[in-house]
Amino acid sequence: EISATYVYYDTIPGSTIHEALVSGNGTSTVLTGLEGCKTYYVHARTVDQCGHASSGSCMGNEISVALAAL
After folding, report:
1. Across-strand partners of 39?
2. Could you tell me which of 15, 56, 52, 8 has the C-alpha nearest to residue 29?
3. What is the rounded CA–CA span in Å between residue 52 and residue 41?
4. What is the DSSP letter of 3?
5. Is 2 helix (H, G, I), strand (E, B) or coil?
6. Of 46, 45, 36, 21, which Cα lies nearest the Cα of 66?
7. Taking the CA atoms of the chain, what radius of gyration do you get in angstroms?
8. Per residue in 7-61, pLDDT tens?
9. What is the pTM of this model?
């Protein structure tokens, strides 16, 4: 069972520098510190009840999001 999900985001593909936590059965989170006119890459990793994180090969598909001017 999933106990948490970490959402990673940055302007560099595959980066894990910035993260947001989605606790328990949550389905959303807020990404902070984003700047307009940049493309961000976002992917997720889950953690089970024993604290085991999904391995790199199980990391969610990465998506890119281009932000408009803020």
Report:
1. 66
2. 8
3. 24
4. E
5. strand
6. 36
7. 13
8. 999 999 988 899 999 887 788 888 989 999 999 999 988 888 888 887 654 566 8
9. 0.79
Place of tokens 């890459």: 41
What is the spatial distance between Cα 26 and Cα 16, in angstroms, rounded to a whole number?
20
Ranges assigned E (strand) in the chain = 2-10, 18-23, 39-48, 63-66
Q: Do you know the residue count of the chain?
A: 70
Residues 6+ apart with CB under 8 A from 62: 13, 14, 41, 42, 43
**Tokens 């006119």 appear where?**
37
CB 8 within 8 A of CB 43: yes
Q: Name the β-bridge partners of 63.
A: 42
Reference 32, options 23, 21, 24; nearest CA is 21
